[in-house]
Write a structure and sequence with these properties.
Two copies of one chain form a homodimer. With 205 residues, chain A is of the alpha/beta class. Chain A has nine helices and ten strands. Chain A folds into two domains: 70 residues, Arc Repressor Mutant, subunit A (Orthogonal Bundle); 106 residues, Rossmann fold. Chain A is 47% helix and 19% strand. In chain A, α2 crosses α3. The complex binds nicotinamide-adenine-dinucleotide (NAD) (2 copies).
Chain lengths: 205, 205
């Protein structure tokens, strides 16, 4: 079993290696990767060792080969169809975020229960009625559902998504969901706590 | 130097221990914490060892004591004044997100350069003109700036924030900023890659 933080870092490694490839670099060391990501080279070696041997003695890691391997592991080569439930501020920001489609996550539908939003478009994507969730998830072959509704509605929406046959959920509501489908909770306050720690550290050195 | 992933996990430990305290639990083991966070107990022990000895043989960790210690380390006891630049979809979602104020990050001001948004309020917070950034940051004693503007404007906004005397930046724009102030980049696509990996793993087991 690969630890969760390692899986999260794979996305970072993929970005970092893509930048090196764009710059025409063929081989990199664990130090080259670690510097860009502000982590230790030993952490890079440890993470990559979970997936087999990629480094060549003296030469370092083969950028193209490692990119292909990581792409395969994190499903980068695959297009993922995404639906966002909650066409509010957050749902709209996620729909228009170019980072998602750049990493092969295509938002194909938004869902809401507010009659004034249903039928409208956000960045070209239609807002469907939440009662059409199951039919639309099957029709558009949607695999990932995003929960961007208020806290009180999140558990109910998770159950609707599970019933519709969705394969994974990215949850932004500050609620622990009870569901059989894999869930990834997102909480941006952790980034604020990290910056607070770095600010305190910087002022005391 | 404490590794960055460890700092990020401290926020998670703090949440987990607060829940145990609310349930009236006085002592917990590294296993009790690890189970809730889906990580290994050895990772919990390793992380907490950076900050000194808290566990008591046989009893486990003293919940109240550990909470106080972590609170002190990640600046939880301190109120942080926050300004968000970019009163669009993302800026609005962040302003109304209850998670921030719950963890003592108070959004006190929004900034924008769109004349139609300036002077309006989002969840009770005033949208100021970006040209008033320096004066308002000093008046409201703002320490953390959030960048929620389009990619092309992010570097310019980072320079304005640095000039205004801000101490730390949380950056949502998909751009690597050049600034002397500590920056924490947020990219939610990493959560999508993690869920994609878990979905692929689940379907192959
Ligand atoms: N995790 C994070 O880092 C983070 C950051 C910001 C916001 N949030 C959370 O994201 C959620 C959305 O925030 P927002 O600012 O976009 O709120 P919002 O009020 O702007 O949008 C919520 C949308 O959900 C819709 N909705 C409500 N109940 C529904 C239901 N049962 N079915 C379908 N749609 C429903 C509403 O009509 C509305 O359009 C909130 O839970 C907020 O706490 C999380
Ligand atoms: N990192 C992530 O996970 C993530 C997720 C979603 C969106 N985003 C990013 O967040 C940013 C904002 O997204 P959005 O959907 O809210 O966009 P938006 O267009 O709704 O909002 C952007 C706001 O910035 C303002 N603005 C533009 N230039 C400015 C300047 N020089 N000074 C002050 N204000 C200025 C605009 O007037 C607008 O109100 C984008 O860069 C987007 O790519 C990141």
């Amino acid at each position: 079993k690969i630890p969760r933080p390692t899986v999260k870092r794979l996305g970072l490694y993929y970005r970092c290696l893509s930048n090196y490839r764009e710059d025409g670099v063929d081989f990199v060391s664990s130090q080259d990767i670690a510097e860009k990501l502000n982590i230790k080279p030993s952490q890079v070696r440890k993470d990559l060792s979970y997936f087999g041997e990629f480094g060549k003695r003296g030469l370092g890691y083969d950028v193209k080969k490692l990119l292909n391997e990581i792409a395969h592991i994190i499903g980068v080569n695959k297009e993922w169809n995404v639906a966002i439930v909650g066409a509010g501020n957050l749902g709209s920001a996620l729909t228009s975020y170019p980072g998602l489609s750049k990493h092969k996550f295509r938002v194909l539908a938004l869902f809401d229960n507010n009659q004034q939003k249903i039928g409208k478009k956000v960045s070209g994507i239609t807002v469907y009625d939440i009662s059409d969730l199951e039919r639309t998830v099957n029709k558009l072959k949607i695999e990932i559902g995003v929960i961007a509704v208020p806290e009180f509605a999140a558990q109910h929406v998770a159950e609707l998504l599970e019933k519709s046959g969705i394969k994974g959920i990215v949850n932004f509501a500050p609620v622990r969901l009870r569901t059989n489908v894999p869930v990834e909770d997102v909480d941006i306050t952790l980034s604020f706590e990290t910056i607070a720690y770095n600010v305190v550290k910087k002022s005391s050195t």
